[in-house]
Amino acid sequence: MADQLTTDAVSTIFHAEPPVDATVLQPTLQILNIKKIQAAANSMDRYRLIMSDGKHYLQAMLGTQLNNLVETNALTKNGLITLTQYATNVVQGRRLLIVLGATAAPGPADRIGQPTNVDDRTAENTEAKANPVAQQQQAAPQAAPQIQSARKVAAPAARGASNAARGGRAGGAQPSGPLYPIEGLSPYQNKWTIKARVAHKSDIKHYSNQRGEGKLFNVTFMDETGEIRATGFNEAVDNFYEVLQEGKVYFISRARVNIAKKQFSNVNNDYEIMFEQHTEIEPCEDESVPQVKYNFVPIENLASVEKDQTCDVLAVVKEVGELGQITAKNGRPFSKRDITLVDQSQWSVRLTLWGKQAEAFKSEGYPVIAFKGVKVGDFGGRSLSMFSSSSMTYNPDVGEAHSLRGWFDAEGTRVSYNTFNSAGMQGAAGANSIRPDEMKTIGQIKDENIGMSDKQEYFSTKATISFIKSESFSYPACPTCNKKVVEENDGWRCEKCDAVYPKPLHRYILNLSVMDHTGHVWITAFNEAAESLLGKTADELVEMKEADEGAFNNIIHTATGKTFTFSCSAKQDSYNDQMRIRYSVRRASPIDYKLEARALIKLIDEMQI
DNA sequence: CCCCCCCC
Known about the structure:
It is built from 13 helices and 31 strands. By secondary structure, the chain is of the alpha+beta class.
């Protein structure tokens, strides 16, 4: 059994100087345990592995790009793992293994041998997790020798091997340390090189505070293991701003790694890079580093993205607003420009550009733009806004962009787009539709006791008018305040306004029975809603009923049997000491067959047949 | 060492 495992691999990985890597040793180990680490908000799950060579075991972190090995059960407890790519990293004087490439194989039913912890200092190191600085100082006496030796990692042999394994260096300048995965960077070592793509580059920002004036810029670097934010101040701006181009790949070395202030950035890394005087950045021709990944949200689905979250949107710029000027809370003026985006979901949304981006924005025709990391707001239901960390890529070379282009050119200019609206925006809303997420059948309205709670509740239902009460459908109202007025000798008196009017304005209180396949219910349509059901004002209908009862009946008859989407409110009240629920129609819209068809398709898709 | 992300 034990011969399946690589003898002494664990202690070699943990202790060898210089550290070994996969060009020297590709060990097969047994997995003793797999633990999911509580993921921070907006970061991926991480797995911690305990791996054994039969004699010793050690802890390792699995690179997130290998999560699928765990999630598909390829890696299991007692199973075997062969490490094909890995890095070690000294943290608090302990060497931490990060697995970057591995293959899995089934293992025996039980643990092989009686391995012991390769790290005999584990017990005393389990304290003080909260404060990395204090922890570092506390660990210093023991850590010092190992940190020292970790710096020596830049030994030519290790470097050459590591570089060869990762595709080689473009040549030129003297490298400053072994090639590290971004995931392996930490403040506890300073000799490293990363090979990374610039996923985003900010504008140059000028600032002035108590300490004086300055300028800075940020970039986000990414490689196959993760991303990290880097900042350059002042001279670093002069040295590197032009060198670093969005989308290109570089070797970066001799920069500082600090603890990131997570609250200021949505880049998924506990650390960040600070460019320094001696920082070296060289372009790299190797394109094997991953491209920026997008996770596009169809505009239609923005309703379900929480306010203040960021997301990626791929859209056509349908309209470009004028450049405007606003004054921010801090009193400073800002340029802004609103543009209107549309996509194949046939929804549109407003996006706001700020500052230089707003001033410089040009759009010829209807460009397709990929927006990365835009902020979702709730103005007008849903809106988008650029952050300084957001990026905008014209006509990106991704499949979705090509199909969007094709679709828009073929039919996108003729589509009437749904727009978000703020009225009652509680999840989703459309100008031409009624909140689709609250569609209920009449059966559901009753089963779920909609309206039985203390506060008013809202729902929409698609139903057919089965009966309209035509005896009393309106009341004489005050033209000023809509309150009921009473006829007197010389006109109509409003108590509230203390005024007499020559004639009242009739307003609807139309009671109707509506039904669907699950039941029927009585609902009340007030003035505007009833007007849209009957196509006449209450005044017109009162007059018609007196003058031509046949025409009046015809109006009622025509409406009966028609189907609408009723946007309703439900509220309890008591009537003759009896509790009942009153359903009021806030709005009645004819069925939007396009939306209806789409909703039905969605329902069919959700069915598990 | 920034860290604001604005308005209607």
